[in-house]
C-alpha cells in the first residue's frame, strides 16, 4: 500500500478536483497544478449541460453510424458538424470512432463500462457537494427525454435497451401528465421519458471552485502554473515541470481535460484524444417553467435550469482546439430553445420576447473525447508513477466521483472497487 506520497494532480476541472479530494482522504500530500481559475471558463467543467445522468451510457458511435455520418457532418444546422480543414488531422480518430460502434456487442460493452462510472453519480455528487458546503448546487429531480411521439421513441430502441440492461428505470408521460410537468413546452412534443434517478448541477463552475476550496481546507496546495513535462530520476518520478518551476512529487496524475494527450505524450504514451467542441447559451430571463433538465430528441441538446437561468448546451463540432469559435452554433441552440418554448418568442411575465430569447452568455468548450467513448484511467504504461485520468467526453461531470475513487485505489495499490480494465491506458 502506498500512503502519504507527495502527488501532483495536473488540472483542476471536475476530474482533477475530485481526484485531489480522493487522494487527500487517503492521506497523500496533494498539489493541484492549474493554469487558470479552478472551475473557470477555460475548463469543459464550467459550461457543460450539467447533467448527472446514470442514463448517459449510450456511446456516440453506434452500429450504422458510418452510413449517417457523412450526411450529418455536412448538415450545417445539425447537432454534429466538422470543419473540413480539420479532417486530415482527425481522420485516424474518426476511423477508430466509427470502428468503436461497429457491432452491438462492442456497444454493449462500452455501455456497461460507462454505467459502472455513472450509476450512482447523483448520490455521489450530492455527498461531495454537501462535504464541500455547497449542498444547494446539486439536486436530484430526475431528467426528461422528450419525443414528438412514440415512433420517435421507438427509433431509439437500442439506446433504451442499453439503458434498461444497465439498470436505468424510467416512466412514460403523455398528455396532461406531460403538460403538468412541462407547462411551457411546445405542444408538438407528445411523449416524455422521465429518469427519476437523474440529477443535475445548478452551477458546475462554482461547484468545481467549491471542491477545490474544500481540497485546500483538507490540506491541498494549489499552484497556479502550466504543467509542461515530467522529471524522472531513473525510472522514478521526481517532479512535474511547469512554467513556474518544478513541483517535486513521487506520483503525478494527468487530469488536464483536452490538454491531457500532449502531457501523456511527454511520458511516452500516445493516446488518441480529440475535442468534440460544444457550445452553450444561457437565457437568464427565460419565462419558462422548467423544474428538471430536458433533452429533446430532435435537437439533442441539454436544456437545464441552472442558477444563472436556462442553460442550453450541446452541439458537437469537430475542429482543432485552437480554431476560433463559430458562434452560429451557439445561435442554433438559442433558436432551438425558441422553437421549443413558444414563450421565448412572445411577451411573457413582463419580459419582452426579445429580452427573453436573447442569450445573456455564450460559451465554447472542449469535450476531451477518446474514439472508443471511454475515459483513460490508470497508470501510464510507459511510466507507472504517472496516472491518467482524462478523456471523459460527454460524461465527465457525472463520472468524476467514480473516476477519482478508481484513481485513488490504483495509486494506493489497493484492489479497486471498480474493474479498471475497460479504461486502461494501454488499450490504444
Ligand atoms: C457543451 C458540453 C456539454 C456537456 N454536458 C455534460 C453533461 O451534461 N454532463 C456531463 O457529465 N458531462 C458533460 N460534458 C462533458 C464534461 O464537461 C467534461 O467531460 C468534463 O468537464 C471534463 O472534465 P476535466 O476535468 O477532465 O477537464 P476540464 O474541465 O477541461 O479541466 C481541465 C483543467 O486542466 C487545466 N489544464 C489544462 N492544461 C493544463 C496544464 N498544462 N497545466 C495546468 N493546468 C492545465 C485547465 O485549465 C482546466 O481547468 C459536456 C461538455 C460540453 C463541452
Summarize the main sheet. Answer: 6 strands, mixed
Calculate the terminal CA-CA distance, rounded to whole Å.
28 Å
Shape summary: globular
Strands side by side in the biggest sheet? 10-2-1-14-21-20
Average pLDDT rating: 95
Strand elements, count: 21
Counting DSSP H or I runs of 4 or more residues, the number of helices is 14
Tell me the strand percentage band. Answer: 25-35%
Low-confidence stretches: none
Helix content: 25-40%
Task: Tell me the quaternary state.
Answer: single chain
Radius of gyration, Cα only, in angstroms? 21 Å
Q: Can you tell me about this structure?
A:
This protein has 428 residues and is α/β, with parallel strands linked by helices. 33% of the residues lie in helices and 25% in strands. It has 14 helices and 21 strands. The chain has helices spanning 14-25, 44-47, 65-73, 87-100, 104-118, 121-131, 150-154, 157-165, 175-181, 204-217, 260-267, 328-340, 353-357, 396-412, and strands at residues 6-10, 29-34, 51-52, 80-82, 138-139, 143-147, 171-174, 191-195, 199-201, 221-224, 227-233, 236-242, 245-248, 251-254, 274-283, 294-296, 301-306, 309-318, 361-369, 376-379, 386-390. It has a six-stranded mixed beta sheet with strand order 10-2-1-14-21-20, with helices on both faces. Strands 4, 15, 17, 18 and 19 form a five-stranded mixed beta sheet that branches. It has a four-stranded mixed beta sheet with strand order 7-8-6-16. Helix 1 (14-25) runs parallel beside helix 10, helix 1 (14-25) packs parallel to helix 14 (396-412) and helix 5 (104-118) crosses helix 14. The longest helix is centred in the last third of the chain and has 17 residues, at 396-412. The two termini are 28 Å apart. 51% of the residues are buried. The structure holds flavin-adenine dinucleotide. Flavin-adenine dinucleotide binds at residues 10-16, 33-36, 42-45, 48-51, 226-227, 255-257, 259, 278, 280, 302, 313-314, 365, 367-368, 390, 392-398.
Amino acid at each position: 500500500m502506498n500512503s502519504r506520497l507527495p502527488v501532483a494532480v495536473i488540472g483542476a476541472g471536475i476530474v482533477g478536483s475530485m481526484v485531489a479530494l480522493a487522494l487527500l482522504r487517503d492521506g497523500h500530500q496533494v498539489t493541484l497544478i492549474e493554469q487558470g481559475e479552478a472551475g473557470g471558463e477555460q475548463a469543459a467543467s464550467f459550461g457543460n449541460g450539467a447533467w448527472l445522468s446514470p442514463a448517459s451510457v449510450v456511446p456516440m458511435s453506434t452500429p450504422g453510424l458510418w452510413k449517417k455520418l457523412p450526411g450529418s457532418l455536412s448538415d450545417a444546422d445539425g447537432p454534429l458538424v466538422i470543419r473540413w480543414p480539420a479532417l486530415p488531422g482527425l481522420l485516424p480518430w474518426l476511423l477508430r470512432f466509427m470502428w468503436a460502434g461497429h457491432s452491438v456487442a462492442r456497444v454493449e460493452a462500452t455501455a456497461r463500462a460507462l454505467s459502472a462510472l455513472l450509476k450512482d453519480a447523483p448520490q455521489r455528487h450530492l455527498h461531495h457537494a454537501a462535504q464541500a458546503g455547497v449542498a444547494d448546487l446539486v439536486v436530484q429531480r430526475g431528467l426528461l427525454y422528450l419525443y414528438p411521439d412514440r415512433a420517435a421513441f421507438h427509433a431509439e430502441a437500442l439506446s433504451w435497451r442499453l439503458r434498461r440492461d444497465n439498470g436505468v428505470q424510467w416512466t412514460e408521460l403523455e398528455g396532461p401528465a406531460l403538460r403538468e410537468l412541462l407547462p411551457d413546452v411546445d405542444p408538438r412534443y407528445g411523449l416524455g421519458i422521465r429518469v427519476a434517478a437523474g440529477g443535475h448541477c445548478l452551477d458546475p463552475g462554482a461547484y468545481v471552485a467549491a471542491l477545490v476550496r474544500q481540497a485546500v481546507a483538507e490540506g491541498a496546495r494549489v499552484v497556479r502554473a502550466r504543467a509542461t513535462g515530467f522529471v524522472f530520476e531513473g525510472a522514478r518520478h521526481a517532479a512535474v515541470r511547469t512554467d513556474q518551476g518544478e513541483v517535486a512529487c513521487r506520483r503525478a496524475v494527468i487530469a488536464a481535460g483536452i490538454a491531457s494527450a500532449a502531457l501523456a505524450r511527454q511520458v511516452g504514451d500516445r493516446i488518441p484524444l480529440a475535442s468534440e467542441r460544444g457550445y452553450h447559451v444561457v437565457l437568464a430571463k427565460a419565462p419558462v417553467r422548467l423544474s428538471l433538465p430536458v433533452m429533446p430528441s430532435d435537437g439533442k441538446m441539454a436544456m437545464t435550469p441552472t442558477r444563472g437561468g436556462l442553460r442550453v448546451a450541446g452541439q458537437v463540432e469537430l475542429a482543432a482546439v485552437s480554431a476560433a469559435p463559430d458562434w452560429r452554433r451557439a445561435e442554433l441552440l438559442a433558436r432551438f430553445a425558441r422553437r421549443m418554448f413558444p414563450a421565448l418568442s412572445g411577451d411573457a411575465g413582463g419580459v419582452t420576447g426579445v429580452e427573453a430569447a436573447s442569450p445573456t452568455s455564450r460559451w465554447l468548450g472542449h469535450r476531451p473525447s477518446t474514439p472508443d467513448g471511454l475515459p483513460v484511467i490508470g497508470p501510464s504504461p510507459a511510466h507507472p508513477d504517472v496516472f491518467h485520468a482524462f478523456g471523459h467526453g460527454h460524461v465527465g461531470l457525472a463520472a468524476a466521483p467514480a473516476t477519482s475513487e478508481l484513481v485513488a485505489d490504483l495509486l494506493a495499490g489497493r484492489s479497486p472497487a471498480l474493474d479498471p480494465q475497460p479504461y486502461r491506458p494501454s488499450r490504444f
